[in-house]
Amino acid sequence: MTDAVDPARLRELGDFLRSRRNRLRPADVGLPSGARRRTPGLRREEVATLAAISPTYLAFLEQGRDVRPSRQVLDALAGALRLGTAERAHLHELVHRAAPPVVASGGETLPPAVAALVDRLDPCPAYVTGRRWDVLAANRAARALWTDWLLLAPDARNMLWWMFTDPAARTVFVEWEQEASAQLARYRSAAARHPGDRGFAELTARLKAASPEVRAWWPRHDIAPLSSGTKRLRHPLLGELEMRHVVLLTADDVEQKLVAFLAADADQARIAELIAAE
Question: Which ranges carry the HTH cro/C1-type domain (predicted)?
Answer without folding.
Answer: 41-88
